[in-house]
Design brief:
InterPro entries (chains A, B): NAD(P)-bd_dom_sf, SDR_fam
Family (chains A, B): Belongs to the short-chain dehydrogenases/reductases (SDR) family.
Oligomer: homodimer
Shape of chain A: globular
Largest sheet of chain A: 7 strands, parallel
Keywords (chains A, B): Oxidoreductase
Number of helices of chain A: 7
Structural class of chain A: alpha/beta
CATH class of chain A: Alpha Beta
Strand content of chain A: 15-25%
Helix content of chain A: 40-55%
Protein name (chains A, B): Short-chain dehydrogenase
CATH topology of chain A: Rossmann fold
Pfam families (chains A, B): adh_short (PF00106)
CATH architecture of chain A: 3-Layer(aba) Sandwich
């Protein structure tokens, strides 16, 4: 079973790389140093890519030597700021990480999926992110969800799963200033994805906090 | 009552410019020839702007000489193509017209609104646009709706109305190949917005076909 984890150098992506069953594993990230260290530790293949570039994403898939059974898109960024204070650089970074990167991964990744292959994309629950300062984050995650709805119609037979965790304790919150109280660990989300991959595919995976 | 119509050289925007009560009217569009002709005909002030540029949108609002009572964002484009055939140019054009232009209009337009001023944005009903080839269109309209949800929290006291017409007979459909049977006229949507502006503000204006 060949797997590619995109956004593997932190948060849910890194937890997933660590939790994934031992098999052919490719890890993609932008930070070369952290990526190489993690890939060495996990005996995985590092694929450096900046998700802001279609060309990087195309090259990443072109370099694969096996059809993929699983692709997990775990990249994401928040960079909160009010709409009236929106800055082009933050807007571009949020949209590239949360939407456009995922869109090019669909374009170039779908042809590389093995029969029965699946793709996972980490989304956001609207009720948790419709909040001041989260305009670009909430909008880009809404866009991702709708794009998956349309892509399922275009690529019948492929399972595209939108993962909807509650708030998760990841480095993303360092951009916000604090991690929400009771945030789920990235490892719990990773375990939920591993468990889902072993079952029948579904369009949406709501990860629930069962500890409480 | 001062009004700015963005995307005024065709479709719903042009119909709205024609239907709007006689008063101070600014019209914005990208096609200078059509814009100037329409502005001359309607005794309005033309403001040429390409919505793909934040700088154009900022300059457009900076050039206004009155606070605005109403802003209508009627720009939009579809350029359908499957996600697996997505091309950077079409993706950029759809997103600039449907989302990023609207986002910069919120940023620069909100400070220019008069007391009691309102903004209208033409959206799309999810059930009508979740269709093959409409990935970028559906996703960008979903993003717009969510951005308005967040911006309402940030700019309390401002009425931001998402207009949700059924399929409308506009030039947008020339990109698709055919206008859907029974499509509503752009003039009917324009009249619904004029009528809504005279009433109490609301976050969503569903334009219904009452002829059937």
């Amino acid at each position: 079973m060949a797997t590619l984890v995109i956004g593997a150098t932190g948060g849910i992506g890194e937890a997933l790389a660590r939790a994934w069953p031992e098999e052919a594993l490719w890890l993609s990230g932008r930070n070369e140093e952290r990526l190489d260290a993690l890939a060495t530790e996990l005996k995985a293949t590092p694929l450096r890519a900046d998700l802001g570039y279609e060309s990087h994403i195309r090259a990443m898939f072109d370099s694969l030597t096996l059809p993929l059974d699983t692709v997990v898109y775990a990249a994401g960024t928040a960079l909160p700021e009010p709409v009236q204070g929106a800055t082009p650089d933050a807007v571009r970074r949020v949209w590239n990480a949360n939407y456009f990167g995922a869109m090019w991964v669909l374009k170039y990744g779908l042809p590389h999926l093995a029969d029965g292959g699946r793709m996972y994309f980490v989304g956001a629950r609207p009720e948790l992110v419709t909040a001041r300062g989260f305009g670009q984050y909430a909008a880009s995650k809404a866009a991702l969800a709708r794009l998956l709805d349309v892509t399922r119609l275009e690529a019948r037979g492929r399972t595209l799963t939108l993962v909807l965790p509650p708030a998760v304790d990841t480095p993303l919150w360092t951009q916000v200033g604090r991690t929400p109280k009771g945030a789920m660990s990235a490892g719990t989300v990773a375990q939920a994805i591993v468990a889902d991959r072993a079952g029948a595919g579904q369009p949406e995976l709501r990860v629930e906090d069962t500890a409480g």
